[in-house]
């Protein structure tokens, strides 16, 4: 069998990069990882993603694929080893894409407004709570969003599992609380306890230090 070149350009602090790594590991695909400095992008990254110049980029046999959601679907369609990331049923696949769009469009946008306001934008907080409420209801009695195993929506929702908790601590505003979102909190524990996820995501301490260094004037960073 011809050895395939699989390389990921990413950053430890990027929730989007970690999506790609988790998907590759779930599929059992070996890859080379290239750490990028988010403030000083390499010529290779700009070459492979000239439009946005962002991580992640997946390089497969010399061909670059950018944007995490696009990469996740590419991984699922390219490698049939390991579990399917997207459901096989067309309706379930469509629903999974709908939930990922909700997370990346509505939740991410609200989180970014929350960050840029250093936790002061109440409208952003309300929108975050709105999306968390929708996700809480969607889980129903399931362990993961796709059932009993990690799938597309779970991988995309790592923003909730780790990053949101860290960010809210930095800015001193409690949004994601166990009492308010019990099913989502249980999902977070199950997701974070998955060995592949645990081995891939940065430590909470590392992420907390990163965000505090970016916002030293934030209330909880002082």
From TrEMBL:
Keyword Ribosomal protein applies: no
Residue span, GST N-terminal domain: 4-83
InterPro entries to which the protein is assigned, alphabetical: Glutathione-S-Trfase_C-like, Glutathione-S-Trfase_C_sf, Glutathione_S-Trfase, Glutathione_S-Trfase_N, GST_C, GST_C_Tau, Omega/Tau-like, Thioredoxin-like_sf
Alphabetical UniProt keywords: Transferase
UniProt cross-references to Pfam families, sorted A to Z: GST_C, GST_N
Reaction equation(s) it catalyzes: RX + glutathione = an S-substituted glutathione + a halide anion + H(+)
EC number: 2.5.1.18
Class in the EC hierarchy, top level: transferase
Positions of the GST C-terminal domain: 89-220
Gene Ontology biological process terms in this record: glutathione metabolic process
Record's GO cellular component terms: cytoplasm
Similarity comment: Belongs to the GST superfamily. HSP26 family.
Name of the protein described by the UniProt record: Probable glutathione S-transferase
Native organism: Daucus carota subsp. sativus
């Amino acid at each position: 069998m011809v050895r395939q070149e699989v390389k990921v350009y990413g950053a430890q602090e990027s929730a989007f990069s970690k999506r790609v790594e988790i998907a590759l590991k779930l599929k059992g695909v070996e890859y080379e990882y290239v750490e990028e400095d988010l403030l000083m992008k390499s010529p290779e990254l700009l070459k492979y993603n000239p439009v946005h110049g962002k991580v992640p980029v997946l390089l497969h046999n010399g061909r670059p694929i950018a944007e995490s959601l696009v990469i996740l679907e590419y991984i699922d369609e390219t490698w049939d080893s390991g579990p399917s990331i997207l459901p096989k049923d067309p309706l379930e696949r469509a629903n999974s894409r709908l939930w990922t769009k909700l997370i990346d469009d509505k939740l991410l946008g609200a989180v970014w407004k929350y960050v840029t306001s250093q936790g002061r934008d109440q409208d952003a907080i309300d929108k975050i709570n709105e999306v968390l409420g929708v996700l809480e209801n969607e889980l129903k009695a399931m362990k993961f969003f796709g059932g009993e195993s990690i799938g597309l929506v779970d991988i995309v929702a790592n923003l909730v599992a780790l990053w949101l908790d860290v960010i809210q601590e930095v800015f001193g505003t409690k949004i994601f609380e166990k009492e308010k979102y019990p099913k989502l909190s249980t999902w977070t524990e199950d997701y974070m306890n998955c060995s592949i996820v645990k081995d891939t995501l940065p430590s909470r301490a590392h992420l907390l230090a990163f965000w505090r260094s970016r916002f030293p004037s934030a209330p909880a960073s002082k």
